[in-house]
């Protein structure tokens, strides 16, 4: 039986629907966050992506402020901010502002990928001299702005607001690099198994092996990303899931489309190879089906990973069906809390 204290959280990509607009996505995001708070989800994270027609959360810090202002108690944060795209001082100031506005509710999840393609990364940074290779130095600078007792910030430069504020920093990753670094620094670690599951278990082993207690964390703390679509029946859930499958298909084809409505037959849309890549690999850590199916799959993932927390993403076209999936998930998993 899984750990009964496993927390349940939400990762929102602010999906832009085919035929819809980012403004509608932001209204849906705020609505989902308010419901999530009532359903006792632990935290609500938003992800930084760029140049993707179907993802509206590119200005992640702004959207975090919008969600935090629409809710009262749920933790809100980034899953994550892509540090190579930003000056560390800017992130310290932005999250210092958020923490000052919404004290005790803000998380800063950090990733080292660009969250986009190379031309867009160049447009974001103006050059590619900085990137994932100097990520530890960038992270050290960011942490020093928030905590002046740490080394790494330029002398005489201060994050106002930000300096001295207790903003939890998480490292996010899909490989062993961030896992090892999170362990060495004594930070919580979140793995992007909702789209890149290949190295999940080795990364968690690395993280736990290298973990050193820190002032912010005494024991390793793991969060695992999972795709979840819960519905009244297996058939309905599978049908709703074809929107997500079409989105993955567009990503591997380099098309970056908006989130499409579900289809009755998806096999004509993809090749056998693409189907195997998406269902057999990219969606390996997914729980799609009735509440019993979803519960059993999630309990198996918890047992396999020994995660302290699951962060769930649900790419469903119809907003009411998406809400219902999260409600069913909360009801079925709360039975074990």
TrEMBL record:
Q: Which InterPro entries match?
A: Bact_Lucif_Oxidored, CmoO-like, Luciferase-like_dom, Luciferase-like_sf
List the Pfam families hit by this protein, alphabetically.
Bac_luciferase
What does the record give under GO molecular function?
A: oxidoreductase activity, acting on paired donors, with incorporation or reduction of molecular oxygen
A GO CC term? cytosol
Looking at the record, the residues that make up the Luciferase-like domain are: 14-300
Similarity comment text for this entry: To bacterial alkanal monooxygenase alpha and beta chains.
Entries under PANTHER family matching the protein = LUCIFERASE-LIKE MONOOXYGENASE (PTHR30137)
What is this protein called in UniProt? Luciferase family oxidoreductase, group 1
Species source reads Evansella caseinilytica
């Amino acid at each position: 039986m899984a750990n009964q204290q496993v927390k349940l959280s939400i990762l929102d990509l602010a999906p832009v629907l085919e035929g819809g607009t980012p403004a509608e996505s932001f209204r849906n995001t705020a609505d989902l966050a308010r419901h999530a708070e009532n359903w006792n989800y632990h935290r609500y994270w938003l992800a930084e992506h760029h140049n993707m027609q179907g993802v509206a959360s590119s200005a992640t810090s702004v959207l975090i402020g919008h969600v935090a202002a629409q809710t009262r108690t749920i933790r809100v944060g980034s899953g994550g901010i892509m540090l190579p795209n930003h000056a560390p001082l800017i992130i310290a100031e932005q999250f210092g502002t958020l923490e000052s506005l919404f004290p005790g509710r803000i998380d800063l999840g950090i990733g080292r990928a660009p969250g986009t393609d190379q031309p867009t990364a160049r447009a974001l940074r103006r050059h590619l001299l900085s990137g994932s290779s100097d990520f530890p130095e960038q992270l050290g600078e960011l942490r020093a702005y928030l905590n002046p007792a740490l080394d790494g910030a330029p002398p005489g430069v201060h994050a106002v607001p930000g300096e001295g504020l207790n903003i939890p920093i998480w490292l996010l990753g899909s490989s062993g690099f961030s896992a090892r670094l999170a362990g060495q620094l004594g930070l919580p670690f979140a793995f992007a198994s909702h789209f890149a599951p290949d190295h999940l278990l080795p990364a968690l082993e690395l993280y736990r092996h290298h973990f050193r207690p820190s002032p912010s964390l005494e024991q390793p703390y793991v969060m695992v990303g999972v795709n979840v679509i819960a519905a009244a029946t297996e058939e309905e859930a599978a049908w709703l899931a074809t929107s997500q499958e079409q989105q993955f298909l567009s990503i591997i084809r380099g098309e970056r489309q908006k989130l499409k409505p579900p289809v009755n037959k998806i096999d004509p849309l993809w090749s056998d190879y693409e189907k195997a890549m998406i269902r057999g690999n990219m969606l390996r850590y997914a729980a799609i089906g009735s509440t019993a199916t979803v519960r059993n799959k999630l309990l198996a993932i918890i047992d396999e990973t020994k995660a302290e927390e699951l962060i769930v993403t649900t790419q469903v076209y119809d907003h009411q069906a998406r809400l219902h999936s999260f409600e069913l998930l909360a009801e079925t998993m709360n039975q074990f809390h």
